[in-house]
Amino acid sequence: MHVCCAPDATTAYLRLKDKGEVTMYFYNPNIHPRSEYIRRLEAARKLVRLWNVDLIEGKYEPDEYFKAVKGYENLGEMSYRCFLCIRQRLLRTAELAKKLGYDSFSTSLPTSPKKSYQMVLEIGEEAEKSFGVKFIIEDFKKNGGYPLSVKLSKELDLYRQNYCGCIFSYYEAEEKRMESRRRRKDKLMELFRTLDLSEDFEIDQEELSVSGDLIKRLGLENFGEILKLARPKKLVVDVETYENFWMGKKNARFGKFKVRIIVKDHVTEGTTGV
Known about the structure:
Elements: E1 2-3, H1 6-16, E2 23-26, H2 34-51, E3 54-57, H3 62-68, H4 80-100, E4 104-105, H5 117-131, E5 134-135, H6 145-155, H7 167-195, E6 207-209, H8 212-218, H9 220-230, E7 234-238, H10 239-245, E8 251-254, E9 257-265, E10 270-273
Parallel strand pairs: 1-2, 2-3, 4-5, 6-7, 7-9
Antiparallel strand pairs: 8-9, 9-10
């Protein structure tokens, strides 16, 4: 089974293991930069250690990827550029499967909602005809497959990337994130004006410290709307505020958005996780 990343491999492996013994194959010359490649490879190594699965590590050869997509670099995600990238990896997987005597091959790619199952299927069938090794696949993202991969990667503490892998997808994803931040910032400023607030919360802060007085003044509903736009990773509050609003909880939840609560310790003047 070709592994695009450890989180996607979780669901794919669980769906395939009843069909026979599975060996994972990490071959992804598209991943850029090398440091990102190493992080994803280490996550795959961790998964196979935890689940006692064999792993074959392919060569990291980014030049081969750039040759494969030459002339199509500026096309976006799920375009013909992605087709060529997936094709390169699946042809290599089928070739290796034949060389090692495996009777079938697969890939974890369809676990991702950003990958077209039909595209993967078409390429896999081409590889099957080229090398005479059966292609076994299903749309792993369906029937709860993608949420399961997210859940398992959190439970197993597997690194989850925030872009597909190639340098082009990195810049495309970063541009989308920047546009999202701009939109959220504009909406946040408009909300501040509506609520007649002088405070200014930054977007995507690591930690956001707030007082109980501010939450009481705004009300939890309005405060939640602010947090959904600001999206801090941690919410720092004093003990009294924690006891008044979230006693016994680890996260403050507002709709689908939740944020980790950190309770400020007045005695040590530090912060402790709750």
